[in-house]
Amino acid sequence: MWLILAFCSAALLGFYDVFKKLALSGNAVLPVLFLNTMICSLLFLPFILLSSYTNMLDGSMFYVEPCGWEQHKYIVLKACIVLSSWVFGYFAMKNLPITIVGPINATRPVMVLVGAMLVFGERLNVWQWCGVLLAIVSFFLLSRSGKKEGVDFRHNKWIFSLVLAAVLGAVSGLYDKYLMALPDNGGVGLSRMVVQSWYNVYQLFLMGLTMLLIWWPTRKKTTAFTWRWSILFISLFLSAADFVYFYALSLPGAMISIVSMVRRGSVVVSFCCGAAVFKERNLRSKAIDMLLVLLGMIFLYIGTH
Length: 305
What we know:
Layout: H1 2-24, H2 29-53, H3 69-95, H4 98-105, H5 108-119, H6 126-147, H7 157-180, H8 192-218, H9 230-250, H10 256-263, H11 267-276, H12 283-303
């Protein structure tokens, strides 16, 4: 069940990337990110309030358990990690083709895998290792495809920004497993709704400070902000993708290394839209990279059975 949910999350993430590209093209990055965090917070705020002041959600999958500062301090750190990853990732998405961003993000679970092996003692079988190796090969092939569009992986600051976002995203994935693991297993023991609801709220405050201190004083000297309806869909698809993701991790037997890898199957959706919507170039060579990622997903699926 957790593997099926991981695939659902991957599809939702693909559309999230597409709407993110639509919202960011020729637009100011920080206001788009601020609105994204605000909408996500507004989506989950009713669950927090209804859980705190009524009995309507008691016993349901939307119930947000009451927590003290001892638990909230871990969620604040989660918000800082995720928001840092988003800032770097949003700037990279604005300045790079989505058909390059998607496959690079697809290599993120390799970092999660190494961390999962070191921290949680997870082990992969031969099929799963084949899937990981295919993802690594796709990254090197993609660097060759990028050169045809003038994107030098060694000297492009947006590539470095994207890689940094991927590293922070991998750290966030490992941290999720720690937050939701039971104390008997060395974790904090938080529920998925507590993590997802409150980290969105904390992100809103963090982005509010960022807007006030960084963007607002320089707004007339940088790219102007324009409202687009795609900004709303960024939040909707992201919230749905994360909800399914956290639910998958909360199920018995869920492996963070596999869930994280499968979620990168979102590259299929973003790649197809990059071709159809954004009319990006060199699709044939990039398609090979995408197929390697897909093949890796298949190997991982076989490995879990």
